[in-house]
Amino acid sequence: MNHPTPAIVTQAAARRLPRLALVLFCMAYVLPGFFGRDAWKSVDMASLGVMAELLQDATSWWMPTLMGVPLENPALLPYWIGGWAMQIAPGWIAPDFVVRIPYGLLLTLALVATWYGTYYLGRSPKAQPVAFAFGGEALPKDYARAMADGALLALIACLGLAQLSHETTPALAQLGFAALFFYGIAALPYHRAAPMAAIASGLAGMALSGAPAMAVLWGLGSGVIHLLDRTRESDSPQTDTITLEGWGILLLTAGAGSIAAALHLWRWKIALPEATWADWNGYAQLLIWFTWPAWPLALWTLWRWRRQLLNRHISRHLAVPAWLSGVTVAATLTTGSSDRTLLLALPSLATLAAFALPTLKRQVAALIDWFTLLFFSGCAFIIWVVWIAMHTGIPSQPAANVARLAPGFVSSFSLLSLAIALAATLMWAWLVHWRVGRHRAAIWKSLVLPAGGAALCWLLLMTLWMPLLNYAQGYKVLVERTVSQIAPAGCVETLGLGQGQIAAFQFYGNLQLKPMQKTPGCPWLLAESGADMAPPASLDNSQWNLLVPINHPTDGNQSVLLFRQR
After folding, report:
1. Bridge partners for 69 per DSSP
2. Beta-bridge partner residues of 217
3. Pairing status of strand 491-495 against strand 512-515
4. pTM as predicted
5. What is the separation of C-alpha 535 from the centre of its chain, rounded to a whole number of angstroms?
């Protein structure tokens, strides 16, 4: 027995978001964070350091290292992308900006692939809304476009997407290829060549970007779902085609796993969470804020569509994103970099969130609007107040807080940044007015304010607060303080430094770093600072004389000790 769909959508509600507005909105989210920013601590900076060593042939392209030390994030393709970008870029472009260009394209790929993946899932027969007795229900393609618009807005609205999606790290490459795989699985019932190419590229890209286990699990589960799916848009099952495609997915999955094994990219980092309140509370908080507001809508989708989900016939629009997000959330509990693992779940969670929109009651939609309006308006207000305090000293308390948390920071004024921030704030005010005054029937209306608010706050941070964030999150101040002590810069030995620190001293300081030797070969030594800035216990004090501790302006854990050979 086929259970009725819970979606009741009129043709008027399936109107699509204007394409130009959608493109401009995505640009306003993607571009900030790739311009005018230094590499931040510590994975972002370490990745840039590896790319620079590849460019200089200081490490193997097949087994990249940083100063001979294996990477904390084993991957190949993300570092190759940055190295290739540096190779082909003109010399007058800053290298740390050059590598952000392909990564900006990877974020764009994630957004586009999520839209098209949701669109094809929205066209599946079991996803269609209830057919009215006298017509007027949403047409399949228009309904699918509205669902895709909602998924894209839900993805941008996710709070955890902002920073990690603007870093030049393997996590962003994994996100781009994961979304590409998601599109391929979703579109396979309607096309063959492009989706199969997307599946192959997505699986291989994830494996080469440091997520081979995730690629294999995604591929195996999606292949089984495709084999069990016996519905097509025409309602005529094509068993031979489905079987061929399903086994093709499984073979591509095996190929991706074999490539990762051949290149030694398998790194088992499974560690079961400890049964302590602090650990589980931390995971719960991460799941709540990182995937907000997609996760409550995704859970609502699973509840409202539960009859289709539990039916013996596969509901592709539910099974595919539920499998991808479920595997990723489970993997988040067993990996050290839980936030970067959870990043891969956002496209599928956003898709599930979109399918909650046809089932939301008016009171729930109004609650989402009011909460979003108050939350993001409050965040934008705080950003503006702190920016004014940094430049004028008024109000005095925010200015004092900045001086305490970032000692030595001197604010700088940018007319361009101010103009962009003002334009974004005015656009937010217009968006709020538009939301309450027009297009109330549009099905994606409840996600306009969450996505707009997330984009607004991210853009304000990347304009008004960019100098402060570079000062606090970057390494340039630490490097400049160090180089000023040992100028002219030369050979420096290191002891216990993190990979982000090593990359910063090499890239921004042009220092020739070497691991500490038993017999000193360089006149200078940079070492990690212990508790109370104490020298490392393994350091031979008879060979080295502590010259000065060099503090990071905001993070004591990044401070270093500078020694000179006796």
Report:
1. 66
2. none
3. parallel
4. 0.93
5. 37
